[in-house]
Description:
binds magnesium ion, 42% helix, seven-stranded mixed sheet, Rossmann fold, alpha/beta, binds guanosine-5'-diphosphate, Gyrase A, domain 2, single chain, Four Helix Bundle (Hemerythrin (Met), subunit A), 16 helices
Amino acid sequence: MRKKALLVNVDDTIAAVSTPVGEGGIGIVRLSGRKALSIADRIFVSKNGTKPSECMTYTVHYGHIMDSRLPAGQAGFRGNDSIVDEVILTVMRAPKSYTKEDVVEINCHGGVVSLRRVLDLLLSAGARLAGPGEFTKRAFINGRIDLAQAEAVLDIIKSRTEGSLKVALGHLEGELSRKITALRDELLDVLSEIEAGIDFSDEDIEPASGKELYRRLGSALKEIKDLIDNSWQGMVLKEGILSVICGKPNVGKSSLMNALLRRNRVIVTPSPGTTRDAIEEEINLKGIPVRVVDTAGISRPKGIAEKHGIKKSKSYINKADLILFMLDLSRPWTKADSDILSAIKRKNFITIANKSDLKRKLNIHKIRGFPPDGEIIEASLLRNKNVGHIEEKILRKVWRGEIMHPEATFISNLRHKKDLEMAAKSLGRARGAFKKRQGFTPEIAASNLREAVFFLGSILGDAIEPDILERVFSKFCVGK
Ligand SMILES: Nc1nc2c(ncn2[C@@H]2O[C@H](COP(=O)(O)OP(=O)(O)O)[C@@H](O)[C@H]2O)c(=O)[nH]1
Ligand SMILES: [Mg+2]
């Protein structure tokens, strides 16, 4: 599907409030399309009388948004009922704008009512309310950015740590797109050689050329596989990980949550069963967003609230990427500890043996069923001892002990990963068609290569189905 065919309303001029709803110092209403300037002419009166349609690109103008349908009043501007807001208006002409169309941005006072009124005026002057991500979608359809870059815009907006922001910015700058384009060009090059009619079974032909093409496809395949294999790093940076604190009542789960958060978020008391519901917060561990959940202690529930809390704890255990299993060194091992251990032992977990400041009544190494290589950190959360160690261990578990390469290109998007996997499959089949045993089948190699090229192109949005495009942009907010 060609890009232009995807845009039904290419002639529409779209408008939306581009800043978050609520009170703010300023709020921005954005307008894009062929009629952006003439629509702005109808509602904006500048201080010096120039109209937006007469303004040069990238110029900024002070004036008022006027509703000509209202009476002008008597006392000039001050007493004028038709004034909607005092604004700064920016003109950005096509093609050097966010959407490659004429764009007007109006900086209003950031109140909900004033923004709404300015938007309503634009709509009655001939603009249409923009759909989710429609400005960015136009930037894509008009060819300023590719689809992977459009998706990076969303990732930038949603970034929660410097790490994920860096990945997203890299993608917007075209880091990933360049890599995918280079891979696709390489495959197209091999494809053209195959299509030129090289017959590898023919003795007259230099057999080395077949080997060379086979080798080139192999190294392209390796690059694609590396991207897939490393994608978890991009995903972890973007989505973060879910770590769940588990342990019997009173071991210090809430104390750990507070220590990791560096504030007293959860109530800590000496009486068991204090935390009845699961509480979730996010921390930033060296650029990785880690969601930490403090659960209700899993034991025999005493009330209905506690019962629900325990049920929730169990569902969190299923979802968790990492379990922080807590033990109390000052109390002997009990059935409650065994129950939790058996619930989590197939998960990725680390053990935190708390209350090391008290007299010991627990020897972990003597416990049956405890993994011999289980990682244990002794801590005293009451005295804030070893919190740094716990954080380090979490990071090491999450990052699987691998070094983070800040310069590497990570994919961080499931859609890209799926396309890469499809491309790898097709490429694998194309290589298979080179095998001497079966005899070289150029048609099979070529058709699989074409498929691989298609899937790589889909990452960039070269050929994309409208429903996939809808799905990509439906995640955006209106106004972006
Ligand atoms: N002595 C000692 N007491 C602790 C330590 N950590 C937590 N506690 C106490 O143990 C009790 C239960 O702690 P809490 O965090 O509420 O446990 P939870 O029920 O697992 O959430 C509280 O009175 C805490 O002050 C520790 O390292 N040493
Ligand atoms: Mg608690």
